[in-house]
User: What shape does this take?
Amino acid sequence: WYQRRVRKQWYQRRVREDEVDITTRQEKSGGEHSKLHQIVKQQLAPKCREIIGQYIQFLQTTHGKQVVLPTKGAGQGINTVSTKTKPDSVNSIKKQMDAAVISKSGPKKTENVTLQRTEFSLKDTFKCRREELFQCFVNPDRMKAYLRGEADVDPRESGKFSLLAGAITGTYLEIQPEDKIQQHWRFKDWPAEMFSSVTLTFKDTGSSTELTLHQTGVPQYSLEQIKQGWTRYYFQPIKMTFGYGSGSL
Assistant: This one.
């Protein structure tokens, strides 16, 4: 009698969604990864929880007779089910799972995310001649010196560049000696095929050279990282490596 009662209760019991635990974890840092993680937590995880709950109910209904039920006085037993399932039912649930999973392809990951792009300008002054500072952005040897690493640079219009182990890549669009450099520029963590536009202008002030940087098309989430990167990996190292931070011409 006890076993029949437990079995009946087990059949009638519905699995609530909150009884299915799904844990998500963000593997990479960055604004875009955080946005995708939020989408997974808010949209994908609840859908999977619902479908898994349906699957558990399917197993209970289909394999209830093969469940090892607890006997009187035996405490909590272990419920086991046969691995044989009805193909049609399983395929139906599998299709629901497939429909809930976000595509692994890059562009589709952000199709529900509005990617805001912005621009910014930076200015700095260097105690050197204009031609000397200009060479810091086109001369591979100078770039290797202050970047402290490989600088794959083809300093001509339509020439490619790759810096900081491929973290920064792009193309020289325009080079006006000692006056202006325009680049097609991207950071490796940006969505595929996304580039920004960088314009560097060099102004001789007599006692120093003023550098103005203007960058457009930068993802909003990456703005502060990129601004800090120009100062940390370009401006400060140039001054420290070549002594352009103080003194006279």
